[in-house]
């Protein structure tokens, strides 16, 4: 029987995530990306207790609904991944943690959040309600740093041309709306040119990642989960593009003791630290053809999972 949810944001790889977490009555599980509560509801249905984390204030109505359906077994903490340790500080045992990385379809559908280049809205892109906005970046950053994030976070091959076009236009008037920026990017890249994706896709992705420090938060969240999980506790991480998956893969490769230390100038050595995780399964699992057909967001999704050992945590990975 499928566990697919009817929430406004359909949780990707839900059945596979639940299989990886294997929640049972009495377990305590962290849903580090609560969203609309799809994973949380499926975990709670197995009898476990859930601590949801989310920095997005608009998820509160969904959290209230889950709390009403599962009284005394659910709580929500307003925090990004980096606050996971503090969120579970009073928990005597943590049996699992799940992360669903990136922006949700629910957030994309809210034009006022500024995530979408297909809907007009303020150029915001914050997953929370504090800090730098996308408008701050495109209106104040110099050419070099802006082009750098477009290339690094968006894999935009013409990042310099896009940054130049943005600087030229903002000299006339600042950017404040999503469609305005999307039009400038599209013109800088020569229009659609028959491309399968909109020309602004990579730039908008890069801005979103930079605004929310998504990769830094992912690294911090993985390290926090490693420190908080009890021996036998399970970690499940769903990613949607190569930058995220590369971080998760490198983390698990290192923590399972499969990454030899050394450099091309020195002999390879084995890290003396004991593995803090064992893999739940090799490689990454992907969505079924059936799920991809009904949920386009699932097409690029990858699930990696591991089980915590009794070895001490290694701490955050070096940058």
From TrEMBL:
Its EC number is 2.1.1.199. S-adenosyl-L-methionine binds at residues 37-39, 54, 81, 100, 107. The keyword S-adenosyl-L-methionine applies. It is found in: Cytoplasm. It catalyses: cytidine(1402) in 16S rRNA + S-adenosyl-L-methionine = N(4)-methylcytidine(1402) in 16S rRNA + S-adenosyl-L-homocysteine + H(+). Its main location: cytoplasm. Keywords: Cytoplasm, Methyltransferase, rRNA processing, S-adenosyl-L-methionine, Transferase. The keyword Ribosomal protein does not apply. It comes from the Bacteria. NCBIfam families: 16S rRNA (cytosine(1402)-N(4))-methyltransferase RsmH. Belongs to the methyltransferase superfamily. RsmH family. PANTHER family: 12S RRNA N4-METHYLCYTIDINE METHYLTRANSFERASE, S-ADENOSYL-METHYLTRANSFERASE MRAW. Specifically methylates the N4 position of cytidine in position 1402 (C1402) of 16S rRNA. HAMAP family: 16SrRNA_methyltr_H. This is Ribosomal RNA small subunit methyltransferase H. It comes from Brevundimonas vitisensis.
């Amino acid at each position: 029987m499928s566990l697919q949810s009817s929430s406004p944001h359909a949780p990707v790889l839900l059945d596979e995530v639940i299989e990886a977490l294997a929640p049972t009555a009495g377990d305590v599980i962290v849903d580090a990306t609560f969203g609309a509560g799809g994973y949380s509801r499926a975990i709670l249905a197995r009898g476990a207790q859930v601590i949801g984390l989310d920095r997005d204030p608009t998820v509160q109505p969904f959290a209230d609904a889950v709390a009403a359906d599962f009284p005394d077994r659910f709580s929500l903490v307003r925090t990004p991944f980096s606050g996971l340790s503090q969120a579970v500080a009073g928990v005597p045992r943590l049996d699992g943690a799940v992360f669903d990385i990136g922006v949700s379809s629910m957030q994309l559908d809210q034009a006022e959040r500024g995530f979408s280049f297909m809907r007009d809205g303020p150029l915001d892109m914050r997953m929370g309600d504090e800090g730098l906005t996308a408008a701050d970046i495109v209106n104040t950053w110099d050419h070099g740093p802006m082009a750098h994030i477009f290339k690094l976070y968006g894999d935009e091959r013409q990042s310099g041309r896009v940054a130049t076009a943005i600087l030229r236009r903002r000299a006339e008037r600042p950017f404040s709306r999503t469609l305005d920026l999307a039009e400038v990017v599209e013109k800088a890249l020569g229009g659609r040119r028959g491309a399968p994706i909109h020309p602004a896709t990579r730039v908008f992705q890069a801005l979103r990642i930079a605004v929310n420090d998504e990769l830094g938060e992912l690294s911090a969240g993985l390290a926090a989960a490693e420190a908080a999980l009890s021996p036998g506790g399970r970690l499940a991480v769903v990613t949607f593009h190569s930058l995220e998956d590369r971080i998760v893969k490198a983390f698990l490769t290192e923590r399972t003791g499969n990454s030899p230390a050394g450099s091309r100038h020195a002999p390879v050595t084995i890290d003396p630290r004991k593995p803090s995780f064992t893999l739940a399964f090799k490689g990454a699992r992907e969505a079924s053809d059936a799920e991809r057909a009904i949920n386009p967001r699932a097409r690029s999704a990858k699930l990696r999972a591991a089980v915590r050992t009794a070895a001490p945590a290694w701490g955050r990975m070096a940058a």
